Amino acid sequence: MKPSRFAAFSMLTVAVAFWGASYPVTRYALRFIPPFTLGFARFAAAALLLAAFVRPAAAPPRGERAALLALGFTGSFLFVGLMNLGMRATTGVAGSLLSATPPVLTALLAAAFLGEPLRRGRVAGLAAGIAGVVLVARAPGGGASPAADFVRGNAIILLSQVCWASYTMLGRRFALRCAGDTAAFWTTAVGALLLLPLSCLELLRGAAIVVTAGGALALLYLSVLNTALAYLFWNRALRTVGASTAAGFQYLQPLSGAFVSIAFLGERLSPPLVAGAALILAGVWFVLRGEGARDGNAAAAVPD
């Protein structure tokens, strides 16, 4: 049963707000849990929740297993693994602002690998987005130190966004026929399986887990709300609205992340961060402007 448009818009808003807040929450959780172990625990718990409450198909269709493996590799393993590494050195504000870049990066990758045309609006969006990324990446750390580590952390976060953009592009290309709940389960399960050996390696090399109530709550947020529930909301909303319409909700992601970073981590917005955020959001707007006509095609390419 498809949700109503109001329900779909509500689910998209909640999902994107959860994803935006994941950057400051991850930064906090990394005080207690090493990066790869945090990623493994996040996806393992989410996969168990999805298996228990959604009852996905026992096995995906044979013709879609390679596609789901590729989606799990890019959208779960690489994306979150790199995000966790980057968040050790940067701030929740900067990470959240860079999380708005995937529409711009997807347009660039789609032009390079899928042959999609780069019209003037998209070129303007790419230029604005790239300028904004440079400003955010080189802005004063606002709590992350030293400056070189802050820039390196932002570079890793940007690389994680390239992985998410690749995941989006692969979703368009594969046009999965399996249910969105099944796709969500298998992509999170693949992420957990691929992160497990890296988690074991970092623990064997001496990385420690500090058991605290705050760390446990952060992990609970990342696995239950940010992964299992947000992915379910997103996929179910896509049954009603097109993928391009849903992409417009990404404007909310950096706002929720910045709010949580400032309110709970005591971070601050510097003028270069504000200017960079404005350029990134302008770039996303220019890119998404020309996407409306693709709604029907894009929606078919996203699991539902």
What keyword list fits this structure?
single chain, mainly alpha, 13 helices, 75% helix, disordered C terminus
Give structural notes.
The protein is mainly alpha-helical and 304 residues long. It has one domain. Helix content is 75%, strand content 0%. It contains 13 helices and no strands. The longest helix has 28 residues, at 147-174. It is globular and about 45 Å long. The chain starts with a helix and ends with a helix. The relative contact order is 0.23. Residues 293-304 have low confidence and may be disordered.
SSE arrangement, N to C: HHHHHHHHHHHHH
Structural class of the helices, strands and pairings? mainly alpha
Report the major sheet: none
Task: Assign an overall shape.
Answer: globular
Question: What fraction of residues sit in β-strands?
Answer: under 5%
Q: Report the span from N to C terminus.
A: 11 Å
Query: In oligomeric terms, what are we looking at?
Result: single chain
- The proportion of residues forming helix, as a percent range, comes to over 70%
Low-confidence stretches: 293-304
Q: What's the structural domain tally?
A: 1
Arithmetic mean of pLDDT: 84
Write the layout of secondary structure elements.
Layout: H1 5-29, H2 35-53, H3 65-87, H4 92-98, H5 102-113, H6 120-138, H7 147-174, H8 180-204, H9 213-237, H10 243-247, H11 252-265, H12 271-289, H13 295-300
Helix pairs in contact: 1-4, 1-9, 1-11, 2-3, 2-8, 2-9, 3-7, 3-8, 4-11, 4-12, 5-6, 5-7, 5-12, 6-7, 6-12, 8-9
Give a brief description:
The protein has one domain.
